[in-house]
Amino acid sequence: MNLLNENEITLCLYEGKFRNELEAFYLPEQQLEFTELPGESLKKCLEDKDRFPVVVTYLGHAVGFFVMSIGEAVKVYSDNEQAVLLRAYLINLPEQGKGFAVQSIKKLALFVQCHFPLKNEIVLAVNKRNTGAQKVYKRGGFIDTGKRVIGPKGLQYIFHLKIGEERL
Fold it and tell me: What is the pLDDT of residues 102-153, one digit of tens each?
């Protein structure tokens, strides 16, 4: 039984106060094959003005992390100029299995509407072999577009979530 209160999960743009918590994040090797730890992502965000680091919090503490990208990076995955790219998504290992992943994914559309108001779609690439992540994204409302790309770790499925449209 999941006792997680979804109202206590928030998504917020990265602030320095989360740095120590994020630097302590840990993932097993089999998960690191498909994503990177927050420290690596934050370095890339400093070098690329089109990357925006986001922290998943529960009761004010960092439990997850991801990056939203705009601009050229999105074009590999979508022809929609109003799309934003979700990348480097992870939940810290000790926090996995508690519902944070699905609940944070369900909050993405509202987060994007608030922080990227001109965007109407979220896209992501998920590795064919990363079946756990595929399930989480689908439970969060993402749909497989049928588009495929070859990424650094093999075949990737392109998922998307429309924003601002009624979904059944």
Answer: 999 999 999 999 999 999 999 999 999 999 999 999 999 999 999 999 988 8
- What share of residues in the chain are helix, strand, coil (percent, to 5)? 35, 35, 30
The amino acid at 30: Q
Report the candidate in 95, 126, 86, 88 with the shortest Cα–Cα distance to residue 26.
95
Residue 165 has a pLDDT of 60
CB 8 within 8 A of CB 59: yes
**Residue (of 63, 82, 84) closest to 12 by Cα position:** 63
Out of 3.40.190.290, 3.40.190.10, 3.50.30.30, 3.40.630.30, select the CATH number for domain 6-120: 3.40.630.30
Torsion of CA 111, 116, 118, 124, to 10 degrees: -80
60: left (phi over 0), alpha (psi -120 to 50) or beta: left
Predicted local confidence at residue 4, as pLDDT: 63
